[in-house]
From TrEMBL:
Keywords per UniProt: Metal-binding, Nucleus, Zinc, Zinc-finger
Subcellular location per the Swiss-Prot or TrEMBL entry: Nucleus
GO function term, MF aspect, one: zinc ion binding
Signal peptide (from-to): none
Organism name: Cirrhinus mrigala (Mrigala)
Protein name: Zinc finger BED domain-containing protein 4
Entries under InterPro entries matching the protein: RNaseH-like_sf, ZnF_BED_domain_contain
PANTHER family recorded: ZINC FINGER BED DOMAIN-CONTAINING PROTEIN 39, ZINC FINGER BED DOMAIN-CONTAINING PROTEIN 4
Main location: nucleus
Length: 323
């Protein structure tokens, strides 16, 4: 029962309570990461913490004094979800599709009828896929499967006499063109998720690929909803992903990957900035090596055996390190 004498805390008290709770979350995240690094024996090998954009994870990286970057797959999820929400025609279709799939998922009679019609129409016996709110790829999979099974699904809904409104032929056409737009993001998310090696160098080229693909698709789509989706995606990519080309860890990874180098960048200005940053870091490392007695004493003898020049002369003879 409610206590009639209870007094609601003041604004200052509530603020303090929230701050304490948030502080505890940051500390817990920090300790969890430290524990994992110790268990896996990688205390001194982690150079960057890749997480979502949650404030507690950003604060955790700051407290651990580690570089932090937002996960591209998570960023793609947010971009596509937001783009769909801002495309009214597609959002309405998504809501209708969810209800249709939910009906076939919950009704044994509907599932059996769909299976019967699939066999009669020569369609694969594939089940419909329901989307998951936290994964935009599931929205893509739901619409893709529904489009592939549109004939048996439509026939089943008519024979079952449900109160649900089936998708019209115009809506299916919209779905088809929107799938042609979203497929690039699905491929990018899949590639990032199944990558078995470090994929940091792919981030910037993937963003460039997505921007180029959607820009090209804009001139090919004929449906107004699909065109609006393209425009929303391009705008959100510019708003939420342009910072990746200015992140030191990402730009250097792309620049050092022999597959991409500077051609992986959307902006050549950012590419040249990355080149200058890499040049400066390499120059600093070489200067530090020259000033180390054990290293500087070995470099001249090694160089003299091959070229007859001293270590310092050999390094200074090139312009790369001192641009």
């Amino acid at each position: 029962m409610l206590d009639p004498t209870y007094t609601f805390p003041s604004r200052q008290t509530l603020k303090k309570m929230v701050e304490e709770k948030y502080k505890d979350a940051k500390e817990k995240a920090k300790e969890d990461v430290k524990k994992a690094r110790a268990e896996w024996g990688i205390q001194n090998e982690v150079r960057c913490l890749v997480t979502d954009a949650a404030a507690n994870m950003i604060a955790c990286a700051s407290r651990l004094k580690m570089h932090h970057t937002n996960c591209l797959a998570h960023a793609l999820n947010l971009v596509v979800k937001k783009a769909i929400e801002q495309t009214p025609g597609l959002e309405d279709i998504r809501v209708k599709a969810r209800k249709i799939v939910a009906h076939f998922k919950s009704s044994t009679t509907a599932r059996e009828k769909l299976l019967l019609l699939q066999n009669q129409m020569g369609k694969p016996n594939h089940k419909l896929i329901q989307e998951v709110d936290t994964r935009w790829n599931s929205t893509y999979a739901m619409l893709e499967r529904l489009f592939a099974q549109k004939e048996p699904v439509g026939a089943a809904m008519i024979s079952l006499k449900t109160n649900l409104t089936p998708l019209t032929s115009e809506e299916y056409q919209t779905v088809n063109e929107c799938l042609g737009v979203m497929c690039y993001f699905n491929e990018a998310s899949t590639e990032l998720s199944e990558e078995k090696r470090v994929s940091g160098s792919k981030v910037i080229p993937l963003i460039r690929m997505l921007r180029h693909a959607i820009t090209s698709k804009t001139s090919q789509v004929h449906d107004d909803t699909a065109l609006q989706l393209c425009n929303n995606l391009l705008r959100l990519i510019s708003e939420r992903m342009s910072t990746y080309e200015t992140m030191s860890v990402m730009t250097l990874a792309t620049l050092l990957d022999p597959r991409f180098k500077t051609i992986g960048f959307c902006s050549q200005s950012n590419a040249q900035t990355a080149v200058r940053r890499l040049t400066a870091e390499c120059a600093a490392m070489i200067r530090a090596a020259e000033n180390t007695p054990s290293t500087s004493s070995q470099i001249p003898s090694l160089q003299s055996e091959t070229s007859g020049a001293t270590g310092s002369d050999a390094i200074n003879s090139g312009t790369f390190w001192y641009i």
